[in-house]
Design goal:
2 copies of one chain form a homodimer. Chain A has 337 residues and is of the alpha+beta class. Chain A has 2 domains: 142 residues, PurM-like, N-terminal domain (60s Ribosomal Protein L30, Chain: A); 165 residues, Phosphoribosyl-aminoimidazole Synthetase, Chain A, domain 2 (Alpha-Beta Complex), CATH 3.90.650.10. The first copy, chain A, is built from 9 helices and 14 strands. Chain A is globular and about 65 Å long. Chains A and B meet through helix 1, strand 1, strand 2, helix 3 and strand 5 of A and helix 1, strand 1, strand 2, helix 3 and strand 5 of B.
Chain lengths: 337, 337
């Protein structure tokens, strides 16, 4: 983008010369493909199978760059993962930016390049986009919306209604890294300096298990609200109870002690490279062993089981007691994703 | 939403209790349908035809409410219109909000209800959504992303490459209302008080003409950058020249004089209920007469024609002269949509 002003101005969002320049010299260059290059208002996708899955998310994470990722990587992985846990093969993304006047073009470029790399790795194509600019002080650097389309190829019936008592609950690794990494950076706490977000595309690992395991009931990614809130949502919607074994939930050492200092329970901290699987009892062990062979599943564990009930999540604590896990409440953890 | 705090707090965006309450009591209530009610991370759409069209837009218009519409109506119409001008039948929308802490819940409710009504009128279903909240002073009330999916049912080949010399250029009415309405409100100029945005869903009128006229080459909605910028884009991409007859371009009286006072050319002001059609010569008159029978087309005019060339738009002025129309440049018109 040499020769252009090196900061984002309101004119970059007015649909004129500078918008055009930004689109051609940054977005088209980074995401280049036949769909996007057509520059039509609406892009035609063909050879679509009969069933597809759609998911949308806006990303407002602060700071824009953090150990383990940045808002661009997160915006791609977040939507790719939502499609993957729904049992779909992620295929297409739309990307829409809300930029703040005064943003440096080099920061934007870094984020866009990161999105391009992550999309390529995840095998998704950016087919449409949009850019708006708001005045300085009316936004915060970069907000990104991604909307994803995936193909539902296999006829798999995943969903809340498929859960049965005895089903096992599995997580593909340690929880809380993303949330705690962002929080400690937001507040410059000077602790947890080796913390790193787990932000990653789950497309490949999930594709692998969907092909191999017929007993998968449902998958969900425990992002905002963490493992506890996501489990509570599934329990509520399925009207089953879940028993969760605290000593089985993998938590990395630094997450544990930094969480303790800050009074934050890792079970309520966001993850961006984790998925919960509920699977029929007799496949749970093999499933967990299979996950452990994948780099994104090396710390996989069976952490609990489904019971008859009406939507409670009960944590069997280290000390042999039981406490209910409810939705995250009263501890606002802003701008985690 | 009685009994809840009446302003948006950071907790409304943390994925916990308040997020859930907002989703259930406002979004699900307003947009209710089977897709959305499933509350899955990714929603399954089935019976999809082989070809579909996707379009995405973020909306940051300021003020949120204006004569003729509001950010909610605009966010639905904007994406619906992008699909319609692509020759698709708009079917599904995803909706994603970025809210500013401190926003009054009643303002949000008004916008969401307006979106619900507009979506119903346009016959599109809201199938997925997301809500994020940013701290006071890091956003501006409400930003909305909508991503739309339409079905390309008829096998119509619309596109830049189909243009031929002699083709006529048609607009379905007066230009500049939306842009000038927003600008005068943004700056509290106290003039143009009877100005009103033309914000409207073009789905029906476009469906009608697509069914009846086989000679349509391309359609585009002249939003940001106005009629002139959109024509220049089409000319550039098709590598044809366009001759535009200034005395044929419909401009409403108040837009003309307020534009003159402010030094703004209506040809460069945004529209939100207009579409340009390029159609083969021998169908242009009948097409224009047909449009005039529709409430959104009563001021339709043939405004110019396609000529051999390499991407110039030439305006034949009232005074018999010729001047080139280029992309909007140097006059930032912020937050029009």
């Amino acid at each position: 983008m040499a020769g252009v002003t090196d900061i984002i101005t309101l004119s970059h969002g007015d649909g004129g010369v500078l918008t055009n320049k930004l689109v051609r010299e940054l977005f088209l260059k980074t995401f280049s493909n036949d769909y996007l290059d057509s520059l039509e208002d609406g892009v035609v996708l063909d050879n679509i199978p009969e069933k597809m899955v759609v998911s949308t998310d806006s990303f407002v994470v602060s700071p824009l760059f953090f150990p383990g990722g940045d808002i661009g990587k997160l915006a791609v992985c977040g939507t790719v993962n939502d499609l993957a846990v729904s049992g779909a093969l992620p295929r297409f993304l739309t990307v829409s930016f809300i930029l703040e006047e005064g943003l440096s073009l080099s920061r934007l470029e870094k984020v866009v390049v990161s999105m391009g790399n992550t999309a390529r790795e995840a095998g998704v194509t950016v087919v449409a986009g949009d850019t708006k600019v708001v005045e300085n002080g009316h936004g915060d650097g970069i907000f990104i919306n991604t909307t994803g389309i995936g193909y539902l190829e296999a006829e798999r019936e995943l969903g809340y209604h498929t859960l049965k008592p005895g089903d096992k609950i599995v997580i593909n690794g340690t929880v809380g890294e993303h949330g705690l990494t962002i929080l400690t950076r937001q507040q410059n706490l000077g602790i947890g300096e080796s913390l790193k977000s787990d932000c990653a595309s789950l497309k490949d690992i999930i594709k692998g298990v969907l092909e191999k395991f017929t007993g998968i009931r449902i998958m969900r990614d425990p992002t905002r609200g963490g493992l506890a809130t996501t489990l509570k949502e599934i329990a509520d919607l399925s009207q089953k109870d879940f028993e969760i074994w605290e000593d089985k939930v993998p938590v990395e050492g630094e997450v544990k002690w930094v969480g303790e200092i800050l009074g934050l329970d890792p079970l309520y901290l966001a993850n961006e490279g984790k998925f919960i699987t509920i699977i029929q009892e007799n496949q749970a062990e093999e499933f967990t062993s299979f996950l452990r062979q994948h780099p994104l599943g090396s710390n996989s564990e069976v952490i609990g089981e489904v019971q008859e009930g009406r939507g409670q999540v009960l944590l069997k604590t280290f000390f042999g007691g039981t406490r209910p896990l409810n939705y995250l409440a009263g501890a606002p953890l802003p701008r985690i994703c």
